[in-house]
Design goal:
The protein has eleven helices and eight strands. The protein has helices at 27-33, 76-88, 108-117, 139-145, 159-166, 170-183, 210-225, 241-250, 253-262, 290-294, 331-334, and strands at residues 46-50, 94-98, 121-126, 149-153, 195-199, 232-234, 277-280, 286-287.
Length: 346
């Protein structure tokens, strides 16, 4: 796998990386040392729903371990309960659909339509190539007709780097998907149809500055392909599941953890997504974030008496003030400029 910096891309700040004992790293202790503990949840403004692990891609960095052979899918009854919970949760403004490829879940359209009928903003985390999966031809117009905001993965504006992370041929199909979305009005200057792109580093590195990389993406995608988009979100690769396994095979897990720990930025803590987001798993369990979900760390950790599923709460409003469960992977959200589902934090 090639390093992040290429001759035409800005390099990340990757100094002070060193080996650490990953078992000894304690994020909560680190927060306390900076006077930032405990980490309370505020009002829940985003309900993020992982509808399953089925995906038409199998990316190297995927923290979900998603892929074409996965069969974990949210059942319709659980999707219905999600919409009931959304209707009862006045503080929640956004429904954030993720996976896997969320569009491959049969309940995807019902979730979108149901949330839009409730007046909620809907965003889908789209890998772009799903538009070319058999049976998914309806997606571009469906997004447009339901005012779905799109957050789309594109790890580089060059085929070599993008295909190196996501698989052969992904880049060409992604570019074609972006052109289709642009023709429908997505990402056009002044248009209401929002199209954001996501950058993940190609290896064990922190992302470069988000604003700098966004400017480069806009310039190159417009020059090479005539493509427009709204924002670029830089997201740090989390040392869990598939990416952690890759680092371990390369003997780089401890050094990557050292990189994250040594770049801890206390200024990012106030904007952490876990303070305003609650994550729902494909079986209906509640988590503080999608990363905790993949590590099966329940809402609030092991604190007694906290709700465990969407059937144990009447509204997301009642989750405000509960403790947030943390672990060593949380250094990934607080390193450098910080990282969240909405990109850099500072």
């Amino acid at each position: 796998m090639r390093p992040l910096a290429t001759p035409d891309m800005p390099a990340a700040s990757n100094d002070r990386a060193e080996r650490v004992d990953t078992a000894a790293v304690d994020f909560a202790t680190n927060l306390a040392a900076h006077g930032l503990s405990p980490l309370p949840r505020g009002p829940v403004t985003t309900l993020q729903v992982n509808v399953g692990k089925l995906c038409n891609q199998a990316c190297h960095h995927c923290h979900v371990d998603a892929g074409p052979m996965r069969r974990e899918l949210m059942r319709p009854a659980i999707a219905e309960r999600v919409l009931e919970l959304l209707a009862a949760s006045q503080s929640v403004r956004d429904l954030d659909l993720t996976g896997g490829a969320p569009e491959l879940n049969p309940s995807f359209r019902d979730l979108v339509r149901g949330a839009r009928a409730l007046g909620r903003r809907v965003q889908s985390r789209c890998n772009l190539t799903v538009l070319f999966v058999a049976g998914m031809e309806y997606l571009p117009e469906f997004y447009r007709d339901n005012d779905v905001d799109l957050i789309c993965s594109l790890p580089c504006y060059s085929a070599e780097n993008a295909d190196g992370q996501r698989g052969a041929g992904v880049f060409v199909r992604s570019i074609e998907a972006l052109r289709i979305l642009n023709r429908l009005g997505y990402g056009r200057d002044g248009a209401k149809l929002r199209l954001d792109l996501v950058y993940n580093p190609l290896g064990a590195h922190l992302p470069p500055p988000q604003a700098t990389l966004e400017a480069r993406y806009k310039e190159e995608l417009a020059r090479l392909f005539g493509i427009e988009f709204d924002r670029l979100l830089t997201i740090t690769n989390m040392p869990i599941r598939r990416f952690a396994d890759l680092l371990a095979r390369q003997g780089a897990l401890d050094s990557y953890m050292g990189l994250l720990v040594n770049h801890f930025n206390p200024a990012t803590v106030g904007g952490l997504m876990c303070r305003s987001l609650v994550s729902v798993g494909w079986q209906g369990a509640l988590y503080d974030c999608d990363f905790n979900q993949m590590l099966e760390i329940p809402l609030g950790g092991r604190a007694a008496g906290l709700p465990a599923t969407i059937w144990e709460i009447a509204s997301c409003n009642q989750l405000a003030g509960l403790p947030v469960a943390t672990a060593s992977h949380c250094f990934g959200c607080t390193a450098g400029a910080g990282s969240s589902c909405g990109g850099a934090l500072s």
